[in-house]
Design a protein that fits this description.
It is a single chain. The protein has 67 residues and is an alpha+beta fold. The chain has two helices and two strands. It has a two-stranded antiparallel sheet with strand order 1-2. The longest helix is centred in the N-terminal third of the chain and has 14 residues. The protein starts with a helix and ends with a strand.
C-alpha cells in the first residue's frame, strides 16, 4: 500500500471512530522542554520547523471516546 493510500485509509478509520484529540504545540512546552526538543531535533530556532507560529503541532494525542 503506498504512503498516500495508507494516509487516506488511516484518516477514514479515525473518522469512523469517536476520537478526542489533544494537539501539543511548541508554545505549550516549558522553556526547558522547548530547549530539549530543539536539541533533539538538531535545530536552534523553532522557525526552522515552523513551530514558532503554532500552525504545526509537535504531537497529537488521541483518545477513543467512551460510549
Amino acid at each position: 500500500m503506498n504512503q498516500l493510500r495508507r494516509f487516506f485509509y488511516f484518516a477514514a478509520m479515525m473518522e469512523a471512530m469517536s476520537v478526542n484529540e489533544v494537539l501539543i504545540y511548541f508554545s505549550d512546552l516549558t522553556e526547558e522542554a522547548q530547549q530539549r526538543v530543539l536539541a533533539a531535533a538538531g535545530i536552534q530556532d523553532p522557525k526552522e520547523a515552523n513551530w514558532d507560529s503554532d500552525i504545526v503541532p509537535l504531537a497529537t494525542i488521541s483518545f477513543e471516546a467512551e460510549e
